[in-house]
C-alpha cells in the first residue's frame, strides 16, 4: 500500500493485513512506546481543507506514537490564502523533507492527481474526498465490526441516514463488498437515496422497520447540510427524526446483540437519541479509539514496504 486513495483499490488480503496489524496496536502504553522507532526521522503533514476533529487528531496521535514529526497545516494561515495551489504546497513540503501527506479536500479526484505528481518517496493518504471517499474511516469501521462480530459473511449490516452525501458510507460499502458481507441494507428517505452504482453489493429501502429487521450492525449518519443543494437544505428535521431517527424502540427490530456505530460528529436528537448513542450496544467511542490503532497500522505497513 503506497497510497491510500479509495478502499475499493485495496485487496481483501491487504485489508486483513491492516486489521491484523491494528490489533497489535490495541495494547498498553508501554508496548506502544516500543513501536516508536518505526517512523523515527520521518515527517507527516496533515493538510485539511475541510474541518476535522477525529481524523486529524487520530492521524496526529498515530504518527506521533510511531515516532514521526507532525506538521499540522492550516489553510487559513498558509500561502493557499495567497493563491498557492495544493500541489505547490505539497512540493514545498516535500522539499522540507516531509514523506507522508494526509489530505482532506472537497475536490473529486484530487488525491489521485496528487499521487501521480509527487516524488517516489512520498505517500498520499486520503482523509476525505468530497462525498466520494474516506478510506481510513472505512478501515476503522471494518476493524470495529470485525472485533465485535467476526465473520463478515454472516452479518446483516445497515447504513441509515444521509447516504447520498456520505463518503463514509461509500468507503464502508467498498470495504464490505471486498470482505464479502452477508447483507448490506441502505435505509434512507428517497431524497437521501444514493446512486446505487456506487453500492453494488447493497439493497436500498426507505422503510426503516424492514431495513432494521434482524440487523447485526447499524451505522447511522448525520445530515450533511453543507453538501446539500439549496432546495433540499431547509428540509424538516423534526419530520426526519420522527421517521428515521435511531431510537431504542426502533432497535427492538434488530438482533439482541446489535452494535450501533456512528462516524461522528453526531447530531443528537436528529439521527440518533442520547439513549442509543450512549447505550450498552453503542461502539461509537470504540470507533474513535480503534481509529488510532488502524492508522498506526496503515502507516507502519507503508513504512515497512518503503524500507524493503
TrEMBL record:
Its EC number is 2.1.3.2. PROSITE patterns: CARBAMOYLTRANSFERASE (PS00097). One of its GO terms (molecular function) is amino acid binding. GO terms for biological process: 'de novo' pyrimidine nucleobase biosynthetic process; 'de novo' UMP biosynthetic process; amino acid metabolic process. It catalyses: carbamoyl phosphate + L-aspartate = N-carbamoyl-L-aspartate + phosphate + H(+). The keyword Transferase applies. The keyword Nucleotide-binding does not apply. Pathway: Pyrimidine metabolism; UMP biosynthesis via de novo pathway; (S)-dihydroorotate from bicarbonate: step 2/3. It holds the Pfam family OTCace_N. GO terms for cellular component: cytosol. It is an enzyme of class 2 (transferase). Residues 2-146 form the Aspartate/ornithine carbamoyltransferase carbamoyl-P binding domain. Belongs to the aspartate/ornithine carbamoyltransferase superfamily. ATCase family. PANTHER family: ASPARTATE CARBAMOYLTRANSFERASE, ORNITHINE CARBAMOYLTRANSFERASE, MITOCHONDRIAL. Catalyzes the condensation of carbamoyl phosphate and aspartate to form carbamoyl aspartate and inorganic phosphate, the committed step in the de novo pyrimidine nucleotide biosynthesis pathway. This is aspartate carbamoyltransferase.
Amino acid at each position: 500500500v503506497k497510497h491510500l486513495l479509495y478502499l475499493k483499490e485495496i485487496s481483501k488480503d491487504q485489508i486483513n493485513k491492516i486489521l491484523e496489524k491494528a490489533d497489535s496496536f490495541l495494547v498498553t502504553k508501554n508496548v506502544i512506546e516500543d513501536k516508536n522507532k518505526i517512523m523515527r526521522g520521518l515527517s507527516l503533514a496533515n493538510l485539511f481543507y475541510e474541518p476535522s476533529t477525529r481524523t486529524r487528531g487520530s492521524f496526529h496521535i498515530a504518527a506521533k506514537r510511531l515516532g514521526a514529526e507532525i506538521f499540522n497545516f492550516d489553510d487559513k494561515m498558509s500561502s493557499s490564502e495567497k493563491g498557492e495551489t495544493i500541489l505547490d504546497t505539497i512540493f514545498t513540503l516535500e522539499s522540507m523533507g516531509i514523506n507522508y501527506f494526509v489530505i482532506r479536500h472537497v475536490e473529486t479526484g484530487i488525491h489521485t492527481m496528487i499521487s501521480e505528481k509527487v516524488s517516489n518517496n512520498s505517500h498520499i493518504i486520503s482523509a476525505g474526498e468530497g462525498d466520494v471517499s474516506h478510506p481510513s474511516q472505512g478501515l476503522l469501521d471494518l476493524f470495529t465490526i470485525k472485533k465485535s462480530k467476526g465473520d463478515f459473511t454472516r452479518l446483516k449490516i445497515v447504513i441509515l441516514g444521509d447516504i447520498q452525501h456520505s463518503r463514509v458510507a461509500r468507503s464502508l460499502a467498498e470495504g464490505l463488498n471486498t470482505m464479502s458481507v452477508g447483507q448490506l441494507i441502505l435505509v434512507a428517505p428517497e431524497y437521501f437515496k444514493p446512486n446505487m452504482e456506487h453500492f453494488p453489493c447493497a439493497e436500498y429501502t426507505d422503510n426503516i422497520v424492514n431495513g432494521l429487521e434482524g440487523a447485526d450492525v447499524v451505522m447511522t449518519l448525520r445530515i450533511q447540510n453543507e453538501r446539500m443543494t439549496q432546495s433540499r437544505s431547509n428540509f424538516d428535521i423534526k419530520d426526519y427524526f420522527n421517521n428515521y431517527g435511531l431510537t431504542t424502540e426502533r432497535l427492538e427490530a434488530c438482533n439482541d446483540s446489535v452494535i450501533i456505530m456512528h462516524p461522528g460528529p453526531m447530531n443528537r436528537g436528529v439521527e440518533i437519541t442520547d439513549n442509543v448513542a450512549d447505550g450498552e450496544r453503542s461502539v461509537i467511542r470504540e470507533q474513535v479509539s480503534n481509529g488510532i490503532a488502524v492508522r498506526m497500522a496503515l502507516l507502519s505497513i507503508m513504512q515497512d514496504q518503503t524500507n524493503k
